[in-house]
Request: fold
Amino acid sequence: MTTPVDGLGEALAAVDAFDRALVAGLSRPQPARVADLTELAHAVAGSPLAARVAEAVGKAAAGAAGEDHFLALAAARTALLGAAHDALTARADESTGRPRGEASTAASDQRQTVNLLLAARTWLADLARAGWQGIDHELVGSAAQIVSAMLPDPALRRLATLLDGFAAELAASCPGASLDRFPARRWGDLWARALLLTRPGATASRPAAPVTGRLLPLGVDLHEHATAAQAQVHAVFEPTDGGAPRLVRASVSVPKPDTVVAAGVWQLLRPHLPLLTALGEGRSMQLTDMPLTEDGDLIWDDDRARTGEPADAFATARVALPAATAPPTAPLDRHTAGLAEPVFLEGYTTRQDGDSPLTFGFAGHSLAVDTDRIPAAGPLTPEAVAASRACIGLLRWDDGAFHVQPLAVETTVRKKTVALQAGAWAGGTTDKTGVKAEKAATDAVTVLRERAGRLLRT
Reply:
């Protein structure tokens, strides 16, 4: 895992070059930015995109690029990041010895309103021409009407939500001319993803099939934002028909007030996904005809699940995880930032010098540990990880190297082996810190509901 991946640096350098061009804008690119665009074209010269991207770069260099040309540039950027994702995934599979399923063709969705897609594409093209340095409130605010028209249509809601969030980020940074630094990779990601989603059929539904069997949770990855939270449970699914075990995910997202933090977040998530309670209690779940997408996502239905027998996550990690088949990744989800492979590690040493990150050591090699991703909504702490001897985590890639995000660890407390889960409080807790946070969350939600009720009555 420490050996360089051939071509990875060059692919990411081409993405960075295009992102520099987006910062300055593509209405009248300067010679340095034309060189950046040319680097993108050279990076895909051996692919089926070569001719269209070369034409698009030529038009952009002349300041005459149209919406189809911007679409070709977005496709080239996305393809490079997808290739980087595939190379890193292959390296992770090689390291874990894990098999991976193959993707099939998704069914096209013909329900989308073409006029709204074209309106969104026009706005994104205007952004590219202006560049991040040229954005202003008038340009960014023109997305509001498009988003409002899209939101009622379920087929367009994914794009509408992306545009809404993207526009909000840009509005918070207006005017662009006043900024010293730009989140070029992030805004480039959002711009390219949104532009590709304006293609009819881009949001095609992935194949899903009902599955029956036992679900063995490994851990939960909690994402918290000021106004939203998401919990994603990673698990091993064992089908009753004797088929190979599979890695699967189950997710739930909820809006939240910014006053609900730490363990109080579980209070908002728990009612929407009983699997969180099972994980907190260390139990399996029995699924009956639960829809499972080809990409490994369970489309959760409470009526198709019931709580099963006790299931220790570390026993699952030691016995079932090594033989589990990993799901393929949907085309538009192929991105280096999306890599999150469940792994089990033990027999390592830990080391941390000063302000340097914690590392796990294996036979002279080291793997960085991302303790910043450990949520405050559980008993798992960086100190517990540093004292651990076994870890369930997610293998990720960032800043040019692999690292692991801990989901659970085994450590020794008073000469006894203790397991600490990041999601241990998901189903409720008697821990003093957790109880206090849950009570504060209850009080905050109660006050907000009373205020909302008074507003509605008036």
